[in-house]
Specification:
Elements lengths: L5 E6 L6 H10 L4 E5 L2 H15 L4 E4 L4 E2 L6 E5 L11 E4 L11 H10 L5 E6 L4 H7 L4 E4 L6 E6 L9 E4 L3 H15 L3 E3 L5 H12 L5 E4 L13 E4 L3 E3 L4 E3 L2 H8 L9 E5 L8 H9 L8 E3 L9 H8 L8 E3 L4 H10 L2 H6 L3 H11 L9 H18 L4 H11 L6 H18 L8 H27 L2 H11 L6 E3 L4 E4 L2 E7 L2 E4 L5 H27 L6 E3 L4 E4 L2 E7 L8 E4 L7 H22 L1 H7 L6 H12 L3 E3 L4 H6 L2 H8 L4 E2 L3 E3 L6 H15 L14 E3 L8 H4 L2 E4 L2 E4 H12 L11 H7 L3 H10 L2 E9 L16 H12 L1 H10 L10 H5 L15 H10 L7 E9 L1 H4 L3 H8 L1 E2 L4 E2 L56 H9 L2
Parallel strand pairs: 1-7, 1-8, 2-5, 2-6, 3-5, 6-7, 9-16, 10-12, 10-13, 11-12, 13-16, 17-18
Antiparallel strand pairs: 3-4, 14-15, 19-20, 20-21, 21-22, 23-24, 24-25, 25-26, 27-29, 28-29, 30-32, 31-32, 33-34, 35-36
Length: about 1000
């Protein structure tokens, strides 16, 4: 180039506008070339010039990208790709201090020494280059530019406390990914920028940061090379890096180059350290703030005077040493190392015996190792490319197509896509070499399309992994104090600003479970703020909802649809529980009070409907004295009282008091005093909940399935549980109390002293087998004795005799079978004539035939021939059980027996709980029970043996209890004697 051109070195720290100044100067000339250190920066500058002058006059040339319009005036290139021998009016080299870089410095030094513009040449960089430039380019003029903003040291900060608009710098891919993941969890996400990214991926990541989608940038030292970003703070996660050969500490000028990215234009910036990086010492921090660095004394140099006669001659020319004190020989670069390796291959050495082939070999060796594989593997690939070029003058289309097809896949994770992107860069570089392919434009388009697809996929994976758009959007809106728009669909899914944040379950917000730590806290804070109007709308809808949409659970919870909105809490009395609502504090007290009022209305109406008889009993002012006290006991027990618990109170009630209580539906049963209407499933379910609240249980027991007469007894259940369920435990099972009273009515007519067998009706109403019934009777106090006898098949000709039953007994029995409650009333109101009513004593003297037992006729004379003619067969046996009252022995001999005889007339049970009844015949009973022979068979021979007589004086006549339903009939019989 002509030395008459103006050469200017524009030096100064970062953020002085040097690159912007160079663009302005270039556009002031007719033609120009600008060389930049990174293809990322080249793409950024290219876009700026295109925006000013249009794409038709601007070219972009890098190792992997080439856009050259026909009327190109301005060339934007990487330093390595700058065209040589082109006469242009203006030429600029940015970041000229890279002449000292061990790997690429010789390229920048070559441009410093050899590249000039016809009219103007600019070298842009740090003040540290003033000495070498003065020595090597004596004609250069110097322009110093001051930093437009201040740069201060902020010390060490945790990543969790990193201010917004910060860049965290790492020096390895693993380190960058780890930091980005941590920021995603704590801050909502970060953009990732690395030199290995394609321009498309890098631009997409930077755009997220620049437009505010994320407030943090995690990058390698690539951002120190002139990338202009809106960064307020730069934090170093490490102070050393691997330079390709060894780990070394970063120099202050290198740290300053990166830290200088903080503060753009007139905005001040800061820098510091984070993570495991130690705080900067005062000297280093001061040097960075004052931009005072040790001057560069030596520039890396490699000869540009190459000899292409043979590979050996080329290698010798590349290893020539520099002349002068400011230049040092560059260390062996990858291209020279590859050349030496390929030159040792006999085939390649034999083909490289002419200048053009040696130059072609050198061009192939300069293909960068984008893949980062072993040097031998990289050299092997370049050897294949060289062989194709020598044999065919071009690379075969089918061969390169196969290589590209293996890479053209967008599945896989970040690392996989990054490797494919590095691989495609090799073929992108190859496609940019002129004359290497038959159809260069086609393959440039193919490789560019594959790179774009991989770049987009990589950007997507980076965003998925390191950016939580939801959290970042919410945090940004909160910081800007903007109103957040929340929406709740019919399923309760909550979206804020279009991002799913969780679910609204009733009046409590449940954040998305995928959010954790600081992310979850920020998410909930933003969501509750946005949900405030939704809480009020939902509260209004709930307050006007019908009772059919609300229900209670067996654990005392209150549900609105499928969501819990409150729970019941024990109140002043069992029928008046209080409410605890489940409402988020952010909803406000007005919402909570409205929900509480609606739930209180619901449970009050539910109790009033299901416990209407009990409410009427509680509010009956006509009840006085003992009747009112007993009514209080019934309300307190929620409508069911074991008779044994209130035996004295029942005995003290007069007939009028009992009548008043019966009007409210109270039934005085032998075992239980209860209100039959409250035994239905719905009242039972609510009664268990209210009882559990009063008992203070942590876990409420559940009600048995509806419709079952007996259920398994639960020995682990709380005391009183079976009563509240409407059952009485007896043995291994519990029987429903109304069916137990029907069974007691049947047992009154049996001889419990002499023994009796279970009737089919007894088994029918309990739904039990004989063995289960025996266990039930044992639980009720009866003694069950098992026996075995010959089964007698009844003759078809024998017609059973039907016992005569009085009209009053029939009425009671029928009423008991249909409705236990009705049976009590029927018995109380039966007023049969004296001659039609049978007293208990009269019933006891009825013959055995009147008991409904069929006695088959047996002809003894006719039976004898049958035995002689027919061979005797083994008789068929059957099992039977005889029941007798068993508690008199447990109660203390004769004294316990006498207690059992003092029966309560109404219930038919004495103080010992024994049902009262007379033997149906005056004859002694055999083992088989009343009316049976010695063998226990119906109709068998009478038991042989001496009769027994008692010397006991006759028992005094038992007084008639006026409370007995049969009192009037019995009194009539007494008076009729």
């Amino acid at each position: 180039m002509s030395g008459a051109s103006r050469v200017v070195a524009v030096l100064g720290p970062t953020n002085t506008g040097k690159t912007h100044y160079a663009i302005e100067r270039m556009l002031g000339h007719r033609t120009g070339v600008i060389g930049l250190p990174l293809r990322l920066l080249a793409r950024e500058v290219y876009d700026k010039i295109v925006a000013i002058r249009g794409p038709s006059v601007v070219a972009l040339v890098t190792g992997e990208e080439r856009i050259v319009p026909p009327r190109t005036k301005y060339w934007v290139c990487t330093v390595e790709a700058m065209p040589e021998g082109m006469g242009c009016d203006f030429l600029a080299i940015d970041e000229i201090q890279l002449c000292a870089d061990p790997e690429r410095g010789h390229v920048f030094t070559n441009r410093l020494l050899r590249s000039r513009g016809l009219h103007e040449t600019l070298f842009l960089g740090s003040d540290t280059m003033r000495g070498p430039i003065s020595a090597l380019v004596p004609e250069a003029q110097f322009i110093h530019r001051e930093r437009m903003s201040q740069l201060v040291y902020g010390g060490s900060k945790k990543i969790s406390r990193m201010p917004a608009r910060s860049a965290i710098v790492g020096f390895s891919v693993d380190n960058v990914y780890a930091i980005a993941e941590l920021i995603r969890r704590q801050k909502g996400g970060a953009a990732v920028v690395m030199g290995a990214l394609s321009p498309r991926t890098r631009n997409a990541q930077v755009e997220m940061y620049q437009n505010g989608e994320v407030d943090y940038l995690v990058a390698t030292d690539a951002i120190g090379m002139g990338l202009n970003l809106d960064i307020d703070h730069v934090a170093f996660s490490a102070l050393s890096k691997f330079d390709g050969q060894r780990m070394r500490q970063l120099e202050p000028n290198e740290l300053g180059q990166i830290a200088g990215r903080a503060g753009r234009g007139m905005s001040h910036g800061s820098f510091g350290v984070t993570g495991d990086a130690r705080p900067l010492d005062d000297y280093t921090a001061g040097a960075i703030m004052d931009h005072q660095f040790a001057p560069v004394k030596k520039l890396n140099w490699r000869s540009a005077d190459l000899q292409f006669g043979t590979p050996e001659a080329l290698i010798r020319s590349l290893e020539v040493g520099p002349v002068g004190e400011h230049l040092i020989k560059a260390r062996e670069a990858d291209d020279l190392r590859t050349l030496k390796m390929l030159a040792q291959d006999p085939v390649i050495a034999a083909r490289s015996r002419s200048g053009p082939t040696v130059k072609m070999l050198w061009d192939v060796c300069r293909i960068p190792d984008f893949r980062g594989v072993s040097h031998a593997e990289h050299a092997n690939l370049l050897g294949l490319i060289f062989d194709h070029l020598v044999e065919r003058n071009v690379i075969p289309d089918d061969w390169i197509a196969r290589q590209i097809k293996l890479i053209d896949r967008t599945d896989g994770n970040i690392d996989t896509l990054s490797k494919r992107l590095a691989f495609i860069r090799t073929w992108t570089y190859v496609s940019q070499r002129k004359g290497w392919l038959r159809d260069e434009s086609h393959w440039r388009g193919q490789t560019r399309a594959v790179e774009d697809r991989l770049s987009d996929a990589l950007h997507e994976r980076l965003t998925q992994r390191f950016v939580d758009r939801r959290t970042s959007v919410l945090l940004r809106r909160l910081k800007q104090k903007e109103a957040l728009l929340a929406e709740v669909n019919d399923k309760g899914d909550v979206t804020v600003e279009g991002e799913f944040v969780g679910r609204l379950e009733g009046f409590r917000f449940s954040p998305d479970k995928s959010a954790q730590g600081a992310e979850a806290k920020a998410l909930k804070s933003a969501s509750l703020q946005a949900l405030a109007p939704q809480f009020h709308l939902r509260a209004d809808r709930f307050y006007n909802a019908p009772d059919t949409e609300i229900d209670f659970t067996e654990q005392g919870g209150l549900m609105w649809g499928e969501h819990a909105v409150g729970k019941l809490v024990a109140g002043a009395d069992p029928l008046n529980p209080t409410i605890t609502v489940f409402v988020d504090e952010a909803a406000g007290s007005d919402v909570a009070q409205k929900v509480e009022r609606r739930l209180q209305h619901f449970i009050s109406r539910k109790i009033a409907a299901l416990f209407e008889p009990l409410i009427a009993l509680q509010s009956d002012d006509a009840l006085t004295g003992l009747a009112r006290g007993f009514a209080f006991r019934m309300v307190e027990a929620l409508g069911i009282l074991p008779r044994a618990d209130v035996a004295q109170e029942v005995k003290d009630l007069d007939q009028d008091s009992r009548g008043a209580l019966r009007k409210h539906g109270i039934r005085f049963g032998q075992f239980t005093i209860f209100m039959p209407l409250l035994l239905k499933p719905a009242p039972t379910r609510l009664r268990l909940v209210l009882w559990s609240l009063v008992q203070g249980l942590q876990e409420f027991p559940e009600a048995p399935p509806p419709g079952l007469v007996t259920v398994p007894a639960d020995a682990t259940a709380p005391k009183g549980y079976d009563t509240m369920c409407g059952y009485r435990a007896a043995g291994a099972r519990a029987i429903r109390i109304d069916m137990l009273e029907r069974l007691a009515d049947m047992l009154r007519g049996e001889d419990s002293r002499g023994g009796f067998e279970a009737k089919p009706d007894m088994l029918s109403i309990t739904g039990m087998t004989l063995e289960q019934f025996a266990d039930l009777m044992s639980g009720l106090g009866y003694k069950a004795e098992k026996g075995e006898r010959v089964k007698v098949k009844a003759s078809a000709e024998v017609k059973p005799q039907v016992a005569k039953v009085s009209q009053s007994d029939a009425a009671v029995t029928e009423a008991a079978a249909d409705d236990p409650a009705a049976a009590d009333e029927t018995a109380a109101t039966a007023e049969a004539p004296a001659e039609a009513t049978v007293s208990a004593e009269a019933a006891a003297e009825a013959p055995a035939a009147d008991a409904g037992i069929a006695e088959p006729a047996v002809d003894a004379d006719a039976a004898e021939p049958a035995k002689a003619e027919t061979p005797e067969a083994a008789p068929e046996m059957e099992q039977f059980v005889t029941f007798t009252w068993g508690r008199n022995n447990q109660g203390g001999g004769q004294r316990g027996q006498r207690r059992g005889q003092n029966a309560d007339a109404e219930g038919g049970a004495g103080r010992g709980g024994k049902p009262q009844g007379k033997p149906r015949g005056g004859k002694p009973q055999g083992k088989g029970g009343p009316g049976k022979g010695a063998a226990g068979k119906k109709g068998g021979r009478p038991q042989q043996g001496a009769k027994t007589f008692s010397s006991r004086p006759p028992k005094p006549e038992k007084k008639i209890d006026p409370d007995n339903p049969f009192a009037a009939a019995l009194m009539g019989l007494k008076q009729g004697k």
